[in-house]
Write a structure and sequence with these properties.
Elements: H1 4-31, H2 38-57, H3 59-70, H4 76-94, H5 97-120, H6 123-144, H7 151-159, H8 165-189, H9 204-218, E1 225-229, E2 235-239, E3 242-247, H10 254-272, H11 289-303, H12 307-320, H13 330-336, H14 354-370, H15 378-390, H16 416-435, H17 439-444, H18 449-458, H19 468-476, H20 483-496
Parallel strand pairs: 1-3
Antiparallel strand pairs: 2-3
The structure holds zinc ion (ZN).
């Protein structure tokens, strides 16, 4: 006889398998799908997404969930598994199919319009499409609902469960207040490090070999994953034993591949680190985008852009490019990977100014959603905020409000997860360093296993057993905080800039 649990478990496994296949198709689309195959691939993904949706709104699943949640004898871990699926099912059933369809259509039109507008620096042609997408997102927010009644919370919750605008706004304001003066000091009073040795070509093969070596060195299992190339690096999970990361190689920009690989490695280590006992369950997942991002940024920025890391890795890099970096010292290399600039483009921004780009988007997307800012007025508002936060005005909208894909793609509430990730990463590393003051000599010796094991125990293995902020609270003793990040940035950058 199958019990209610057996039935639920089978359904949960099927959902996970389906999500793995959808992930794999998405990976394939960005890596190996020939251009002629893209349309069919898009249809196949759409079909699987529809099956997933039908699966989630199946009344038999809802009944099973209700029965299990009413069963007081249910094991605590199993209860959380049921709660995680219940959330997915609830959100899926709240958004009417007609709205999903209208959004999919509006999104594909808006994406095409955005691409053309960006290429021609023509914001005016994109504005009406943005207005349509924002209108549909407002409908989506109303359908999803939120405890506060705030539409932005409903959207934010899709990416960062449990986080709210009321909780986040003062945090990001404090972050801006800490960063603006730091950027000012560094760029106005400091001495920028020299990076002229980077102005040369670095062979594709040398870059590829180096990044694969770094991946393995940091603990990414190449038996349970692989690296490929894509235009925009990302991580996709086909199963707990098949995690795919990608990188991008640009011969004249050595850092693109190195830091893309380390960043995606951080995501990949998280995906490879879930508790094997939770395989194929709703717990084999990160609780939020922000916590996921904390792992990529911890490895990329805090470890990968540290002096001990380059003391260890510069010799390997010299070997990969014979004769090209022989005169460069680890200190020079460390300076070059940590230049702070008031730049226009978020994805190229350094660790210090990055969060200012996010704070700007956070303010503007809330204003768009609430209606306080009309889509047609976005470009002007963008340039004003850039001047206020970064002290520069973009030369055109292609380098301004048209640079990111997110809004055209229908993602409002996504941007702040990048800053949440930066904040969590600083908190986690500070807590680890307090426990293990030899952290930096470990890094210089190439011993990354200790740090990885700590992250496994405190973050990875938990999967989605707790909400993101609870995971961080259990690991560090505190919820989302600004101070550790600002302190870490000051401690690192003032000496680099001779201050
Ligand atoms: Zn990331």
């Amino acid at each position: 006889m199958t019990t209610q649990w057996d039935d639920f478990e089978r359904r949960m496994y099927e959902l996970k398998d389906l999500e793995g296949v959808i992930g794999l198709l998405g990976w394939d689309e960005e890596t190996y799908t020939p251009s002629a195959g893209r349309a069919a691939r898009g249809r196949q993904t759409g079909t699987l997404e529809a099956i997933r949706h039908r699966w989630l709104v199946d009344p038999a699943l809802q009944d099973g969930i209700a029965g299990l949640l009413a069963d007081e004898t249910l094991d605590a871990t199993k209860r959380v598994m049921v709660q995680r699926v219940e959330r997915q099912a609830r959100l899926a059933s709240r958004v009417p199919e007609s709205l999903v369809k209208r959004m999919a259509e509006a999104r594909s039109t808006a994406l095409a319009a955005w691409q053309a507008a960006k290429a021609e620096d023509d914001f005016v042609s994109f504005a009406p499409h943005l207005a349509t997408v924002v209108g549909l997102l407002r409908e989506r927010a109303d359908a999803l609902g939120s405890d506060s009644g705030d539409p932005y919370d409903a959207l934010l919750d899709e990416y960062e469960p449990g986080m709210t605008e009321a909780r986040l706004t003062p945090v990001l304001e404090e972050l801006v207040a800490g960063l603006v003066p730091l950027v000012q000091r560094l760029t106005e009073e400091g001495r920028a490090p020299d990076a002229s040795f980077l102005e040369q070509s670095f062979s594709d093969a040398g870059q590829w070999d180096f990044t694969v070596r770094v991946l393995a060195d940091l603990g990414f299992s190449l038996e349970r994953g692989r690296q490929d190339r894509s235009a925009h690096p990302f991580t996709a999970t086909a199963s707990e034993d098949d995690v795919r990361v990608t990188t991008k190689i640009v011969e004249k920009q050595l850092f693109v591949s190195i830091f893309s690989t380390i960043h995606e490695c951080g995501h990949g280590l998280y995906e490879q680190g879930f508790d094997p006992a939770h395989a194929r369950t709703s717990l084999a997942a990160a609780p939020s985008m922000g916590l996921h991002e904390s792992q990529s940024r911890l490895w990329e920025n805090q470890i990968g852009r540290s002096l001990p890391f380059w003391r260890r890795n510069l010799p390997g890099l010299r070997e990969a490019f014979p004769g090209q970096l022989d005169d460069v010292t680890p200190e020079q290399f460390f300076g070059a990977v940590n230049r702070v600039e008031r730049s226009f483009i978020r994805t190229e921004a350094d660790e210090v100014t990055y969060n200012l780009h996010i704070a700007l988007r956070y303010e503007l997307e809330r204003a768009l959603l609430s209606g306080a800012l009309a889509a047609k007025d976005l470009a002007g508002a963008w340039n004003e905020k850039m001047q206020a936060y970064l002290g520069v005005t973009p030369p055109d909208d292609a380098h301004g409000c048209l640079q990111d894909i997110h809004w055209a793609w229908g993602a409002i509430g996504y941007f702040p997860t990048y800053s949440i990730g930066n904040l969590y990463s600083a908190q986690l590393l500070a807590a680890y360093e307090a426990e293990r003051p030899e952290l930096w000599s470990d890094v210089e010796a190439g011993d990354f296993a200790r740090l990885l094991e700590w992250l496994r125990a405190k973050v990875h293995r938990l999967g989605h057993l707790y909400d993101a902020e609870d995971v961080v609270r259990r690991a560090t003793g505190e919820g989302l905080l600004v101070r550790p990040l600002v302190e870490a940035l000051e401690k690192k950058y003032l000496p680099i800039y001779g201050l």
